[in-house]
Structure formats: structure tokens, C-alpha cells
Amino acid sequence: MxxxxxxxxRPLMLALTAGLALSACVSSKPVEPPKPPPAIEKPVKPLxxxxxxxxxxxxxxxxxxxxLPPEPFRRAEIDFPTDEPPGTVIIDTGDKHLYLVEDDGKAxxxxxxxxxxGFSWKGTVEIGSRQKWPRWFPPKEMIxxxxxxxxxxxxxxxxxxxxxxxxxxxxxxDGPKDTLFRIHGTFxxxxxxxxASSGCIRMANADVMDLYERVKVGTRVVVR
Length: 224
Known about the structure:
By secondary structure, the protein is mostly beta strands. It contains three helices and 13 strands; from the N terminus they run E-E-H-E-E-E-E-E-E-H-E-E-E-E-H-E. The strands form two sheets. Strands 1, 2, 3, 4, 5, 6, 8, 9, 10, 12 and 13 form an eleven-stranded mixed beta sheet that branches. Strands 7-11 form a two-stranded parallel sheet.
């Protein structure tokens, strides 16, 4: 795995408040990152959301119902001038989009759901692992909190329809350390474009499946 270190210009910054332990809990001194050049939001190639009939996993074929994100957050190739090299993933938590930088000043743009108030973070990390239909291990704090509300959730859920991590997960690492944050699918596609998560980056299942095939372990991820 390509090791990435976080330099002083872009530390991993977690703006987590009292609800800190819900999902991923990493802290460091906040530093205001430099402002990147704005994206040119001009779609040049809207992409199809037709089912993938080449899937080799039956769970992929069992995805049904409305899996589309809201219209403004659907996948498209756009003009996207940036100093980041091709292959970099840029997540703009303000406009709720993830950009995979391509050659020739373009990027593949996807809609995302991001951390709600108290669970936002910024920094530069990397993809440390990629999983199809990942297992979900809810934090002990979540299990205890939900139990107090009368909701019993399991210690582990197998990768399946309804799993909170969806059809794919990209695990974000700070060097050798798992940040506990993920880019993952969701069965709540209408939450794309909102602040709904506990710090993880949500994508429609069709989009995270598409991104999964385009990135690899070691891919640099800039969250801003």
C-alpha cells in the first residue's frame, strides 16, 4: 500500500463534538486548509444508471427499487480544473460532491451525503482497503445508545441488502492507521446531498460500485 503522510498544510481535521464516539473518532488540531480553485459545474457527459448485467455477485443483481440519488447529485463527467493529479479523489463536503480527477482538466463527479453537524472533518487520507458487500461492525457506543432507545442492533451484520455500508466500501487510512471513516454505499439514496452521516461519506450504491472499479488501494483522498 502506498503510504501517505499528512503534512502541516492539510492535516486530518475532525470537527466532532459531544457525539464523538458514534462512528469514527480521530482528533487533531484544526487548521484552515487552503482554498482550492472552484469547479466548473458544467456536465459534459451524463452517465447511465442502467443495471449492470455483467455483475459476478448475485447481491449486485438483487439491488432493486429506487437506488438513484436526487437529480442534482447524479453521476456526470464534468470540466474540473485542479492542481491535484489524475486519480485523486476530492470530496467537497460543502457542495456534497465527490470528484475523481481525470486527465485533460476533467473529473467524474458523484453526489455524496456527508457528516451532520458535529461529525464533519477535513484532511488528506488514502484508501487503505476496498471491500465488496462489507460487513458492518457498529461501534459499542452506538449499540449502547440504541439499546437505551429500545432498539437492539447486532454486533456485526454480514454484507447484504440493507447493510448500512451498502454494496461497496472504501476504507480511509491516515498512513497505517484506519481512521474508521469510509466512503460507502447506502440504501437511503435520498440522503445523498444532505448532512446525514456520522462522518462517513455516503454514495448511492450504483455510484460507489462505479467508483470502486476506478480507484485502488493507495488512492489519495482530499476531504475539504
